[in-house]
Predict the 3D structure of the following.
Amino acid sequence: MDKYNYSKQITGIFSDVETKLRAALPGVGFGVVSEIDLSGKFNEKLGIEFPRYKILGACNPAFAHKAVLAEPQIGVLLPCNFIIREAGKDTIEIAAVNPLMSMQSVGNAELAGLATEVQQKLKKIIDEI
């Protein structure tokens, strides 16, 4: 996970992959706190047909609390985003933000260990799907 995200492509059906992702989150203490159907918004606001693409904002309250205590304005970088997108016929890509890259821009050493823990959990979710 050395770039801004960690991803993998899966052969399958969009809704099945989304269900698996949502089911995996609580196992590492995360839950979905926001959801954006990007393809639906493109269609609604721009009249553009776009392959299915969702952004799920996931939060682990304990990690978020520690982060906000260390850096009060860190909320601008929260929650941890996942994407699920149609990448081709029967190919779905899932990806998660790399919190190490996000937190690096903040310049607060207290966040480094926390970001590493979160990174490991997000990577685990992607790997297990």
User: Anything to note?
Assistant: The chain has five helices and five strands.
